[in-house]
Amino acid sequence: MRTAYTTEQIRAAEHALMARLPEGTLMDRAAAGLATACARELERAAGGVYGSRVVVLAGSGDNGGDALFAGARLAGRGARVTAVPAGTRVHEGGLAALRAAGGRVAGGPVAGAVSGPVVGAVVGAVAGPWGGEVAALIAGADLVLDGLVGIGGSGALREPYAGLAAVVNEADGLVVAVDVPSGVDAGTGEVAGAAVRAGLTVTFGARKTGVLVDPGAEYAGRVELVDIGLGPYLDDPDVAMLTGWDVAAMLPRPSRESDKYRRGVVGVAAGSHQYTGAAVLAVGGALRAGAGLVRYVGFAEPLAQVRTHWPEAVTGELREHGLGVAEVGRVQSWVVGPGVGTGTESLTVVRDVLASDVPVLVDADALTLVAREPSLLRRTAPTLLTPHAGELSRLLGVPRERIEAARLEHVRLAAERLGVTVLLKGSTTVVAEEGRPVRVNPTGTPWLAAGGTGDVLSGIGGALLAGGLSCYDAAACAAYIHGVAGRVAAEGAPLVAGDLLTVLPETLSGILGGRGRAGHRR
């Protein structure tokens, strides 16, 4: 399992470790790892370190020092390294090391504080229309090291940093962020204004929460961890990320004594006269994810479609006023909501399902109904909600834009306020349960942004709940499996929700066989 930590946790661990080490040891370790990562990128993209053009953007803090010391190591291997000190001061040791290794400084010599010529060069770079020596250096660089702002930065970037970020984002060369991209909040992933878009973020000691959760993850690109010895000094993680091996270890597997009931019986209440396909997809997701039996209950039109597509399911027709839910037979979990509608009959169905004494996964239209009637969630059995940002907006009474900008904050708020487990779908899917680290899903593809894919996810989650997993584990594993299936189905091209059902057996086989890492994004 991969873990990530808040800025406060990282700072406390660094302080404890630095008290036991000679001064400068941590920076030296960080710079060595950073230089190694940059050299590897240059070997791949520019044919080697020797003769490559590297620009180091150095802010005032230790982040700038890490970048300068790494630049010195690259200069020692023959790279043409130019530093751009952009803050009110510069790390003297890092700058001295860079110059001693043959590096140069944009705008002239610097000692201690940034001199007038350098400030002038930076201002020239960020003043329109992107003129100045620094802009030209960045545009012509094979690699740009973003050492402007470290993990202590918060809020929108100020000038000249904001302008430099814009110049960097227009450049064609490699961009490597030092610890965290400048402009990204290391603790939350929030981006308040301009920010550097990196192809690679080299982070030190431990992953930072903000580089794993969008929007910050989008700016971080690929994330590489450099071990500097913080491990023994870190508290419990802020967020966690399952690997394929974690998921494989959690997934229910049939034994020699298994029968269809021991493997898990899922009840599905989905679909309506208008949305018949939702029922087909949710039932298919549950069956393909390993449920021993699916008991489907629905109205006449979706019922006919389920019988046609999935003769394996046991079906029952809902009569007026929702009568029939209690008669479906014993189940070990329920999935309710995909395409079920939001009218009076649908509300009765949702009420009946939530009145049961088994775990319930609540999705889609059922989320709209419980937003109107939150008391439905006051139940003793486990409950898992699977909203996207718009649905969570209705549940919390918070604008969708705020949720998308601060996913961690709002998924935690929902879990605490509603007393349930929450899987928030989106560019970064996150799972929250009160008192536990938020789980961040590393798999997926933008092609999953298609109608009906969430219905398949609901079916997968329902099967895992029926198989005995907790809401917390079922949600995280379902998101992981769903994301890998999306990548397998898409292969770089558009997919439709039904494609996920086709590849689910292959996906599960790959995960159970130890190949689950294929779906990781970072």
Please supply descriptive tags for the structure shown above.
single chain; 522 residues; alpha/beta; twelve-stranded mixed sheet; seven-stranded parallel sheet
Topology, please?
Blueprint: E1 2-5, H1 7-18, H2 25-46, E2 53-58, H3 62-76, E3 80-85, H4 92-100, E4 104-105, H5 116-126, H6 133-139, E5 143-147, H7 161-170, E6 174-178, E7 200-204, E8 207-208, H8 216-220, E9 222-226, E10 239-241, H9 244-250, E11 265-269, H10 276-288, E12 293-298, H11 300-309, E13 314-317, E14 333-336, H12 344-354, E15 360-362, H13 365-372, E16 383-385, H14 389-396, H15 400-405, H16 407-418, E17 421-424, E18 430-432, E19 438-440, H17 453-466, H18 471-490, H19 497-512
Parallel strand pairs: 1-8, 2-3, 2-5, 3-4, 5-6, 6-7, 7-9, 10-19, 11-12, 11-14, 12-13, 14-15, 15-16, 16-17
Antiparallel strand pairs: 1-10, 17-18, 18-19
Helix pairs in contact: 2-3, 3-4, 5-6, 5-7, 10-11, 10-17, 10-19, 13-14, 17-18, 17-19, 18-19
Please identify the structural class as seen in this structure.
alpha/beta
- Uncertain parts: 108-131
Total beta strand runs:
19
- Major β-sheet annotation: 12 strands, mixed
Radius of gyration: 26 Å
Oligomer: single chain
Q: What is the mean pLDDT? A: 91
Total helices: the number is 19
Shape: elongated
Helicity range: 40-55%
End-to-end Cα distance, whole Å, is 13 Å
Strand content: 5-15%
Record the strand order, biggest sheet: 8-1-10-19-18-17-16-15-14-11-12-13
Verbal overview:
- The chain has helices at 7-18, 25-46, 62-76, 92-100, 116-126, 133-139, 161-170, 216-220, 244-250, 276-288, 300-309, 344-354, 365-372, 389-396, 400-405, 407-418, 453-466, 471-490, 497-512, and strands at 2-5, 53-58, 80-85, 104-105, 143-147, 174-178, 200-204, 207-208, 222-226, 239-241, 265-269, 293-298, 314-317, 333-336, 360-362, 383-385, 421-424, 430-432, 438-440.
- It has 19 helices and 19 strands.
- Helices cover 41% and strands 15% of the residues.
- It is an alpha/beta fold and 522 residues long.
- Helix 13 runs parallel beside helix 14.
- Strand 12, helix 11 (300-309) and strand 13 (314-317) form a beta-alpha-beta unit.
- It is elongated, with a radius of gyration of 26 Å.
- The two termini are 13 Å apart.
- Strands 8-1-10-19-18-17-16-15-14-11-12-13 form a twelve-stranded mixed sheet, with helices on both faces.
- The longest helix has 22 residues, at 25-46.
- Residues 108-131 have low confidence and may be disordered.
